[in-house]
Design brief:
The protein is mainly alpha-helical and 368 residues long. The chain has four domains: 7-62, no CATH class; 73-201, no CATH class; 209-324, no CATH class; 328-358. It has 16 helices and eight strands. It has helices at residues 7-14, 55-62, 95-99, 108-118, 164-172, 181-184, 195-201, 209-218, 224-237, 243-254, 258-266, 275-291, 311-314, 318-324, 328-339, 344-358; strands at 23-27, 47-51, 73-77, 134-137, 142-145, 151-155, 186-187, 190-191. The strands form four sheets. A two-stranded antiparallel ribbon has the order 1-2. Strand 4 (134-137) and strand 5 (142-145) form a beta hairpin. The chain is extended, with a radius of gyration of 33 Å.
């Protein structure tokens, strides 16, 4: 068993190519019989970590022979989401100066769109195949037809937890002839709102049926709190392609015990919640589990977030709950019924007061 405590050890174990040149460690010291034994010795300055070059290597370098080479060349292909291209600037430049550069809105990936629009041959290649026929010119920041030299393109690695960037990379491996981000999200004439949905439409992603079945199976013997923790675990692992779809299919199971818990907490056996209120309370529980691990439902764009309609339940204060415990559905029905009976003058007063209340522009009103 070997234990690595520094990067050089890992390179030694797994790749001898990266070991680097031979090195020698040298230190100088004074013995006790020295005449200057009373002088202070700086042990840091007398320690040297030197590079050792053998005579044959020195001769090789003197004659300027190649030390290493790779064939064919491999070039990293960068890509990014809309308006998220990297901007390079020096330490002395301010943010205003960096953004004022002419090439701040240019990148290798955006230049690929322009090349696809300019060259008919480019529209027959995917992004990774592009280097077989074209070469990237850093100075004009443009792709130009290749004249010689074989190069292999490799896109940078992106983990599934990166979200839309991960799905963009997945699409770039198969789509061709793209001139914009909209083209990437288009399939069979339909424009999808996200790269993930476009991947799902192309059949590149699973339907998460196995996760839905797992939650349904666990519901036969697990408690509601256990199911909520199971759902959170699936969110953490980034295993689900469409977590919002799994939520909609299993929400009624995840809501188990929520009603019983609140009845016991408030001492109200007649307490009743609507389906939407139960779902909202379940989302609150899921959010609390995620928060305990420095995560949030907001980290998963497609997942719903608990609304403020049940804030009086979050406080778990019985007095506040009793004060706010009224039938909202019945009050809404009465409101619509009474509103239909208002005269024109009453409707004008109603609209003015409601607009002020919704815009939080409180003041006194005088009507003549």
């Amino acid at each position: 068993m070997k234990w690595c405590n520094q990067s050089r050890s890992i390179k030694y174990l797994f790749n001898y190519v990266n070991k680097g040149s031979d090195r020698v460690t040298t230190s100088f010291y004074r013995n006790s019989t020295s005449d200057n034994s009373s002088m202070k010795v700086d042990e840091v300055k007398i320690f040297y970590d030197c590079r050792y070059i053998s005579p044959c290597e020195a001769a090789w370098r003197i004659f300027s022979y190649d030390i290493h080479y790779s064939n064919p060349s491999v070039e990293r292909l960068s890509f990014h989401l809309p308006d998220q291209q990297p901007v390079v600037f020096t330490d002395n430049e301010s943010l205003v100066e960096a953004l004022a550069k002419a090439n701040v809105k240019e990148s290798m990936f955006l230049a690929w769109f322009a090349a696809d629009e300019k060259y008919a041959e480019a529209r027959q290649l995917t992004y990774t195949e592009f280097l077989a026929k074209f070469v990237w010119k850093p100075s004009p920041r443009a792709w130009e037809p290749k004249k010689s030299h074989q190069v292999i393109g490799r896109m940078i690695f992106v983990p599934p937890s990166s979200g839309e960037l991960y799905y963009l990379r997945m699409l770039l491996n198969i789509v061709k002839g793209l001139t914009s981000y909209v083209d990437i999200r288009t399939y069979n004439g339909a424009i999808y709102s996200s790269f993930r949905d476009a991947c799902y439409a192309r059949g590149l992603l699973n339907d998460d049926k196995e996760y839905i079945d797992a939650i349904k199976e666990a519901s036969h013997w697990g408690s509601g709190h256990y199911l909520q923790k199971l759902f959170v675990t699936l969110l953490w692992s980034n295993s689900m392609v469409r977590p919002e779809a799994v939520w909609e299919e299993t929400a009624i199971l995840l809501c188990d015990e929520i009603l019983h818990y609140h009845r016991a907490m408030f001492g109200r056996s007649d307490l009743v919640f609507s389906d939407e209120e139960l779902k909202n309370l379940t989302l609150i529980e899921i959010e609390q589990i995620l928060n305990s691990n420095t995560k949030s439902l907001r980290d998963y764009t497609a997942m719903p977030f608990p609304s403020g309609d049940t804030d009086h339940l979050r406080t778990r204060n019985k007095m506040i709950f009793d004060e706010l415990n009224y039938d909202r559905v019945e009050l809404q029905r009465q409101h619509i019924q009474c509103l239909s009976k208002l005269t024109r003058e009453q409707m004008r007063v109603y609209d003015k007061i409601m607009n002020a209340a919704e815009s939080q522009d409180g003041r006194m009103f005088f009507f003549i």
